[in-house]
């Protein structure tokens, strides 16, 4: 699905690439956007683009809705290799090393040379920039960003004799609360689980909440070294397994990502871990009063960041790169970032967006929106390496093996580390 719109490159953007203002001809841009992200993402992107069009006539943009994040990176790499790359795209922040290895993208320092431009690049939350920079260069600009958070059913808490306004703050409390919240009949059949931590699709992401809380980092910032078999990672995976096998507060086996919000709405679970990107969905569909909290701590607070960045592609003319940069600067500006957050639940990626009148009114009415922002103080970069899809698949397979009881956490992670080492050693 795609739509055509028209917008112009401002004189400031043209100056950034060394052209005389007003002296450039019309520029054609193609923009890949992952539409399969839930909520009002597609409608909001169309609205924002239309506003940019109205204010800036003169340049053509073909916005191509490329499907899921996985679909988007696959289509993008196919286009890059075929010589038909888009000029800009929103792609997962963790795909940065893949795009760099393909020589597909340019660092923003190549385009941003003015003091004003450098100030703009420093305006985003440091936690989001961890997955946007490497080797002293900035390759991605945060836009569709998130962290996982804890959602809880206040009615279920009250029924279980728990304070409905107080979520679990630690792993120990999460287990204690989960036992009180799990409902079993006389035959042992469960009608309500205490907790759901999804483990399908991209299980490493939510599991990284546990590893961060256990004070261990899964990969270095150069993208060429993993720590999958670190004892603290093994301990975190054992805890995840124990939630089902020992504590019996979570259903056994693989917990489906996509089915988790519905299970929460239908009271099949009293607590769930999922993305803040589900915030608007939960607000619209939960038939009960709910709360949102930072993930529980163990040795420390912590969560991974997630979501997508804007990238600018190397196989573009200087005019196209300038036009893409100008659009990215506009759509990530405070007013637009605030509208994006209000519409979707994703985290506005820069502090000044939270100071806009629209955002102040939004959080005054809906304080849970502040949780993910405040959790950024404790956040770390999402797992990202060279050969990222291969490495994360290896790690995900190890998690699945332990969760389904095929391997012990220690054995599964030892094998995963050995496989990752074989892939990554050439990048060191």
UniProtKB/TrEMBL annotation:
Q: Which UniProt keywords apply?
A: Signal
Asked if the Swiss-Prot or TrEMBL record annotates the protein with the keyword DNA damage, the reply is no
Signal peptide region: 1-26
GO CC terms: periplasmic space
Q: Which Gene3D superfamilies match?
A: Periplasmic binding protein-like II (3.40.190.10)
Basic and acidic residues bias spans: 412-428
Q: Does the keyword Nucleotidyltransferase apply?
A: no
Cross-referenced Pfam families, in alphabetical order?
A: SBP_bac_8 (PF13416)
Q: Where in the cell is it found?
A: Periplasm
Give positions of region: Disordered: 406-428
Family under the similarity heading:
Belongs to the bacterial solute-binding protein 1 family.
- Provide the protein name: ABC transporter substrate-binding protein
């Amino acid at each position: 699905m795609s739509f055509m719109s028209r917008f112009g490159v401002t004189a400031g953007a043209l100056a950034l690439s060394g052209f005389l203002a007003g002296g450039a001809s019309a520029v054609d841009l193609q923009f890949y956007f992952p539409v399969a992200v839930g909520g009002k993402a597609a409608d909001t992107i169309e609205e924002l683009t239309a506003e940019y069009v109205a204010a800036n006539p003169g340049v053509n943009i073909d916005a191509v809705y490329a499907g899921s994040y996985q679909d988007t990176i696959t289509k993008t790499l196919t286009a890059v290799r075929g010589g038909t790359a888009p000029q800009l795209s929103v792609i997962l922040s963790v795909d940065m090393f893949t795009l760099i290895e393909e020589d597909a993208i340019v660092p923003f320092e190549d385009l941003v040379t003015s003091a004003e431009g450098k100030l703009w690049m420093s305006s985003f939350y440091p936690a989001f920039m961890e997955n946007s920079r490497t080797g002293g260069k900035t390759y991605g600009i945060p836009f569709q960003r998130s962290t996982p958070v804890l959602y809880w059913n206040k009615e279920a808490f009250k029924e279980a004799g728990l304070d409905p306004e107080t979520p679990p703050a630690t792993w120990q409390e999460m287990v204690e609360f989960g036992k009180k919240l799990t409902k079993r009949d006389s035959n042992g059949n469960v009608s309500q689980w205490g907790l759901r931590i999804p483990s399908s699709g991209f299980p490493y992401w939510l599991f990284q909440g546990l590893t961060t809380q256990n004070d261990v980092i899964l990969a270095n910032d150069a993208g060429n070294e993993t720590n999958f078999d670190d004892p603290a990672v093994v301990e975190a995976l054992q805890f995840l397994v124990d939630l089902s096998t020992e504590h019996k507060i979570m259903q056994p086996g693989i917990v489906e990502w996509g089915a988790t919000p519905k299970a929460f709405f239908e009271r099949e679970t009293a607590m769930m871990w999922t993305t803040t990107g589900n915030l608007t969905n939960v607000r619209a569909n939960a038939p009960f009063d709910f709360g949102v909290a930072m993930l529980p701590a163990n040795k420390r607070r912590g969560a991974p960041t997630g979501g997508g960045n804007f990238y600018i592609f190397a196989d573009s003319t200087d005019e196209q790169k300038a036009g893409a940069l100008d659009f990215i600067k506009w759509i990530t500006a405070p007013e637009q970032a605030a509208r994006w957050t209000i519409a979707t639940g994703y985290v506005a990626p820069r502090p000044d967006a939270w100071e806009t009148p629209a955002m102040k009114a939004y959080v005054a009415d809906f304080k849970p929106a502040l949780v993910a922002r405040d959790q950024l103080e404790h956040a770390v970069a999402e797992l990202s390496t060279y050969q990222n899809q291969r490495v994360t698949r290896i790690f995900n397979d190890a998690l699945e093996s332990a969760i389904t009881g095929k391997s012990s956490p220690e054995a599964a992670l030892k094998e995963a580390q050995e496989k990752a080492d074989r892939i990554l050693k050439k990048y060191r």
